[in-house]
Write a structure and sequence with these properties.
By secondary structure, the chain is an all-alpha fold. The chain has one domain. It is about 75% helix and about 0% strand.
Length: about 70
């Protein structure tokens, strides 16, 4: 006995994964844009930029994974 149908589970997992990846992408994009005017010679600023770029990559991978899962890409 299934709690939900296979299609509903597929969409639930997609919305959960895509929502998390999308919000992660938006959050890191906003933070990266805030650092535009910061001093690039400061190691702390460089470390933050690196972390936000990694977050963007993770977000993109999650979004692309959801799109490929549904056969869009």
């Amino acid at each position: 006995m299934n709690v939900m149908s296979d299609v509903a589970f597929k969409w639930f997992i997609t919305l959960l994964t895509g929502g998390l990846a999308g919000s992660w992408f938006v959050y890191d994009t906003i933070n990266l844009l805030k650092l535009r005017g910061a001093d690039g010679r400061d190691p702390l600023v460089r470390d933050k930029r690196f972390g936000y770029v990694m977050g963007l990559i993770i977000g993109v991978v999650g979004i692309i994974g959801c799109l490929r899962f549904h056969g869009v890409m």
